[in-house]
């Protein structure tokens, strides 16, 4: 297997731009405005952004489904424009939409897909794939009789027929129940442990936080941050002390930068920057003013907070 990956990156994107041409009344739309991004081999990489940020455009360019306007894309070391065949072979994409031919069985779908990718019969792994995504029993059922969850698992299997080094998942768990979601995540983790680089978009920030080693956030077609997930969370200089004072009481003046707020459950939440204010300074100020402290909890910012902070406006 030729390994064209360079400098430990499964994907290297430089100066990527996409402008959708005007059509009818709709003006031209700049969906990507010059993105530079390298995705390390072996990572689970989260691509996040609000609706319309340009995530699908980027994924579709990687998949070879949308033509870029400018820039360079290297997949597994192969320049998309110079070696389109090799770069396409290195990547598998699980799309968002569930369109599929209603008269194909899962087995037939996988065989057709393998044919499209030119996978010789002896190298196909249809049965293993069906097993992997839990569709062995439905292998010969018509697709129209499959549930939404089963269709989604079939799409995952289809993305894997040519054993790509890189797997791209566009909202893989949107609208699926918790059991299926966990099964999909378990599959994805297993593939990653076997060496596959995973890129995913998701609206479930909690999942991105749990699953992804690194995260990039795009907004209005621009990359606004790209960091290891841990660093992204640690970089938020905001913590919250949640205090049960036995009910609402008068509060003393607190150090500048600390923001007290009464929650609906009657507890006091004080948000503060830990780089400048220590928790015990806050507690001393409260105690000194006779505020009872029946219970204290500390809350860390989560990815949701980071996301809101970075994409505001
Ligand atoms: N085929 C198209 N023609 C014209 N404009 C398009 C086309 N596809 C997407 N756009 C526009 O490009 C911008 C980026 O869209 P894109 O689908 O890439 O965003 P997204 O981040 O994937 O959003 P979502 O989370 O809603 O899927 C949007 O303003 C969208 O309206």
Automatic annotation (TrEMBL):
What PANTHER family does the record tag this protein with? Answer: ABC TRANSPORTER ATP-BINDING PROTEIN, ABC-TYPE MULTIDRUG TRANSPORT SYSTEM, ATPASE COMPONENT
Q: What is this protein called?
A: ABC-2 type transport system ATP-binding protein
Q: Which domain of life is it from?
A: Bacteria
MF GO annotations = ATP binding; ATP hydrolysis activity
Keyword field:
ATP-binding, Nucleotide-binding, Transport
Q: Which organism is it from?
A: Paracoccus alcaliphilus
Residue ranges of domain ABC transporter in the record: 11-245
Q: Pfam families from the xrefs? A: ABC_tran (PF00005)
